[in-house]
Amino acid sequence: MRIITGFHAIEEELKALSAGTTTPAGSAKAPRPADPSKIAGIRLLYTKPGPRVKKILAEAEILGVPAQKSTDAELDRLAATLQETARDHRGIIMVQENAEATAPLRLEDCVRQLATREGALVLVLDSITDPHNTGAIIRSADQFGVDLVILPEHRGATDFEVISRTSAGASSWVPIVTTTNLVRAVEQLKEAGFWVYGADAGGTPVPEMKVAAKSVLVMGSEGSGIARLLREKCDLIVSIPTKGRLDSLNVSVAAGILLYAFRG
Prior knowledge:
The chain is of the alpha/beta class. It has helices spanning 7-18, 36-39, 51-63, 72-79, 107-115, 131-143, 160-166, 182-191, 228-232, 251-263; strands at residues 2-4, 42-46, 67-69, 92-96, 120-125, 148-152, 176-179, 195-205, 214-219, 236-239. Strand 6, helix 7 and strand 7 form a beta-alpha-beta unit.
């Protein structure tokens, strides 16, 4: 079971469920219910509905997502399994009973599909253990049109409730896959025609790099950077020119700058 808190995160989950269900602009018809298979096992629990909660409940009703009035104690109990920053449910939570049963995206399928495109951008996050940083990066990935984010099953943040909340729901829109072997994942992308860039100090300054149509950007942790074997798979190491006295930028800030440069 997956618990989602935060107005933005819940709203974006509902928007993802409604994708393809609304009628064209200008139509007199109201939005239609979502595909039953998409909303199976999903429900909302709420307490005293303020204006924001009422808006969420109205959207849920259109889609056919059931909503049930509950108590603060029950919402507190469900949210208690989350990290501290995600426990502030503000009177509404989304419960996804079938989250574990839903078939995840497969890396091989994603790579095969991206290989058919003329251009694509993939983001690989290595050893970024703070889910808040991961969520912030995914939010930037949504803004700059990243086609796929690859996370490690180990050595990385996998608290998707916190990631969803921190990304303000962007994780509902950005395709995300996890893998046990980032090195092999990058090898598959290289075989599919991608050029791999690793972000680290001492590399080619961003203003001097030439971005390939099919690109992979690898971001490592602030402490240890990109793992050695993964770094060896990079075709080019790129760096952000800075003038500060600190060692480095926060990884989520650096990711945002680099994604802007790649899409610029």
